[in-house]
Amino acid sequence: MVWFRAMAASAVARSALRRTLAQRPHRSTAVRPFHSTVLRRNAAPVPRPVPLSRLTDSFLDGTSSVYLEELQRAWEADPNSVDESWDNFFRNFVGQAATSPGISGQTIQESMRLLLLVRAYQVNGHMKAKLDPLGLEQREIPDDLDLASYGFTEADLDREFFLGVWRMSGFLSENRPVQTLREILTRLEQAYCGSIGYEYMHIPDRDKCNWLRDKIETVKPRSYSLDRREVILDRLIWSTQFENFLATKWTAAKRFGLEGAETLIPGMKEMFDRAADLGVETIVIGMSHRGRLNVLGNVVRKPLRQIFSEFSGGTKPVDEVGLYTGTGDVKYHLGTSYDRPTRGGNRIHLSLVANPSHLEAVDPVVVGKTRAKQFYSNDTERTRNVGVLIHGDGSFAGQGVVYETLHLSALPNYTTGGTIHMVVNNQVAFTTDPRAGRSSQYCTDVAKALNAPIFHVNGDDVEAVVHVCELAAEWRQTFHSDVVVDIVCYRRFGHNEIDEPSFTQPKMYQIIRNHPKALDIYQEKLLESGQISKEDIERINKKVDTILNEEFINSKDYVPRRRDWLSAYWAGFKSPEQISRIRNTGVKPEILKRVGQAITTIPENFKPHRAVKKIFEQRAQMIETGEGIDWAVGEALAFATLIVEGNHVRLSGQDVERGTFSHRHAVIHDQETGQQYCPLDHLIMNQDEELFTVSNSSLSEFGVLGFELGYSMENPNSLVLWEAQFGDFANGAQVIFDQFVSSGESKWLRQTGLVVLLPHGYDGQGPEHSSARLERFLQMSDDNPFVIPEMDPTLRKQIQECNWQVVNVTTPANYFHVLRRQIHREFRKPLIVMAPKNLLRHKDCKSNLSEFDDVVGHLGFDKQGTRFKRLIKDQNDHKDLEEGINRLILCSGKVYYELDEARKKTERKDVAICRVEQLCPFPYDLIQRELKRYPNSEIVWCQEEPMNMGGYTYISPRLCTAMKALGRGTMDDIKYVGRPPSAATATGFYSVHVQEQTELVQKALQREPIQF
């Protein structure tokens, strides 16, 4: 035991293990038998001591000799009673000390200290790595990387030390029990303190850590073959020459060039080559604007002539019939796709997703699109489709959607099997220094929360960049989890080529002005090695320059193709300029009955909650009788009929499985076993369980809505829905609405049929649980309020020409039809649904099953058949001309039922109430039909929302346009009834709510002129 006591007596040793064993509770002088309380391998230890492999920069406290003596005694009595790592230790050290007179207690003590030094490099070696190409970064080297902290001096460097024969990873596994301290240090410095800094010891999984140690420590100084180096050089020349060419041809243009980070391109290309070798077939890329053009041209292979044409002003994209559609976007926001050959002889499909200037907003979109690709290609192992995100250092640390996206990485219905993150670390965010832009050491520290390994690399060392990029691909394919590559670089020309960076970073840019390019550094290295000559370098440069000039000449005649980066699934879908015929959305009665029975049936041996059982019994009765179909059943019928037609349906959001208002019950739970059952998974024999997906999401709106948007963009033959817990919670995802959903088709010619369900309605639940901010979605609608478009059903393109649809439906049947309409047409548009709350169980908000079927001629439906009704006329049996009606109330949503009830109570026969179910695009034809029906009526718009909210500001100019066309008056002839203007969406006092609601209903029906 003498060696234990010597170890504990050492002041250095006492400080060395203190923090790692801090998990152990404070030990009193009465020491319990260690082996019986802590180290039983098969028992539940309380607490289990840190295995030897997890020791870092701490050592034992003053009672360590007692601790270790107990540990040794436990091992001697039963080797299986201790952790495997300590068993290994005693076998190699204690056993050899007993049989080898040359291995003394002092030798073992020094060996233990050496092991701690090795562990310190594995944990903190990155703090000593040479990461900053500019040499500006000042980092404090941790004490645990100092030899003196372990009692060693320079005099010990050439002494041999006994390390034992360890079953460990890394160079300690090389079966060399004796090495000099100098050899050990050299290997540690090479592995952990060169151009790459590895952070991975925060990962709690030992197998993952050992895998990385093997990769990091057993690779001696990286040495690439001549062929590989020529490829790397060629790619670095392309990256550099591309930027030089653009700078020469367009000296005053913003391009957010890659100067200072040119090694990103060879790094990405080598990563993709390695990924393809490991079975990856498709990579979905998302990135902000810096270096985007270079990635487009050199990695994704967007035609250079097209890029050059865009710089020159170019021509606008056209559709198949030669008509331009959309506003377009700046060139460094656009995307493309390409099937690219790899160095290993494979082919890999690359797609770069278009994005706005909200730098990280594209992250969840990419992840969602990747997940959809995995679904449609049956990639259940998630190895053939991979997402790659390229971040900036400031945005990665500063924007919350980064964490929201990372947080999705292991969730069952959102995981993609790992995303590869690459950070182009400029060491400054526009003009903000890191000390003002983040509170942590690294911009990548947020990824530690998800146990992702992080590889920091000096952006001037192209071979180091290539190495970690390949390692990242290998990690992703091996462990199916996220990984981060942090390329520490700089911006040679500031935020953009016009910006003057010396205003705010004078010291940095004094160094940058004299700093050589990464290409110059690499060329010099290759010339010194003698592997490549000046002539070889000149030959590659000349080849690249020739191609760039040829593409520049060809750019003058370039004609863009419409949607040349859409997936094949979208072939045949119509553009806004092409007429798409109107389709009926009704379903055969026998199919409705069959799926209705399936969605209301619970297995006999399943024991649901008694209240849920009753709900399903009531639903079964609805299907049986064909009467009283409520909202939840109408929705389930829409989902079910689309699924049996072969469409994929996916619904996600917070609490969507049960439904926020306990109405949906798409997944039910056995009250005894906890087993789950989803009726929509059992519509047909041998149904693919993933054909219908319903999933409660994380408490994220930004990330999850972005994910579902990306998912919806992959394949049009799917109904993808996101539901907010309450409608106003959509505020947290406003960037996705503003930059993607509302304008994606206009900017990037990208269609999506995404459905957004936003619970909305004034029930006295306060400002945050009343309004889904209907006005915001209507304000972003792009239809012209002063021009009535072509409304003939055979010629109408109104919805196709509008950026999205906004509806506030009031019957289960109409909800059924509007959902099915999303799939049963030849184009896709986002659909915003002001979903109800109290209508979910309202006694009058019911439909008959006949309203869902495809039988022509039902009361209230168009002659063409059953389909979504954009406007529901008055429920009374009014003729085509009703001169006795003196008030026409137009409204939308649940206020209709309150108006109708008050009308019945007051027996007002002179009032007609029409429901505008589709607010955007505005149903001019149906509005004019009702205006003609009631020629003598005063026209009222009634809403629950304050005057500055809701539909009023959108409806009134369009209603006025419809009236003027019929000679029915002007804006002054539209009477507003609703709440007065307000800062908050609703009152927080229930009594005030009731009073306001009562007054507005009365005011809408009163005979006297409306005074507001």
UniProtKB/TrEMBL annotation:
SUPFAM superfamilies for this protein: Thiamin diphosphate-binding fold (THDP-binding) (SSF52518)
Native organism: Dioscorea cayennensis subsp. rotundata
Gene Ontology molecular-function annotations: metal ion binding; oxoglutarate dehydrogenase (succinyl-transferring) activity; thiamine pyrophosphate binding
Keyword Magnesium: yes
Reaction equation(s) it catalyzes: N(6)-[(R)-lipoyl]-L-lysyl-[protein] + 2-oxoglutarate + H(+) = N(6)-[(R)-S(8)-succinyldihydrolipoyl]-L-lysyl-[protein] + CO2
EC number: 1.2.4.2
Cofactor: thiamine diphosphate; Mg(2+)
Main function: The 2-oxoglutarate dehydrogenase complex catalyzes the overall conversion of 2-oxoglutarate to succinyl-CoA and CO(2). It contains multiple copies of three enzymatic components: 2-oxoglutarate dehydrogenase (E1), dihydrolipoamide succinyltransferase (E2) and lipoamide dehydrogenase (E3).
Top-tier EC class: oxidoreductase
Gene Ontology BP terms: tricarboxylic acid cycle
Main subcellular localisation: mitochondrion
Protein name according to UniProt: 2-oxoglutarate dehydrogenase, mitochondrial
Domain Transketolase-like pyrimidine-binding per the UniProt entry, residue ranges: 629-842
Family: Belongs to the alpha-ketoglutarate dehydrogenase family.
Alphabetical UniProt keywords: Magnesium, Metal-binding, Mitochondrion, Oxidoreductase, Thiamine pyrophosphate, Transit peptide, Tricarboxylic acid cycle
CDD domains linked: TPP_E1_OGDC_like (cd02016)
Signal peptide: none
One GO CC term on file: mitochondrial matrix
Subcellular location(s) per record: Mitochondrion matrix
One Pfam family named in its UniProt record: 2-oxogl_dehyd_N
InterPro entries: 2-oxogl_dehyd_N, 2oxoglutarate_DH_E1, DH_E1, KGD_C_sf, ODO-1/KGD_C, THDP-binding, Transketolase-like_Pyr-bd
Transmembrane segments: none
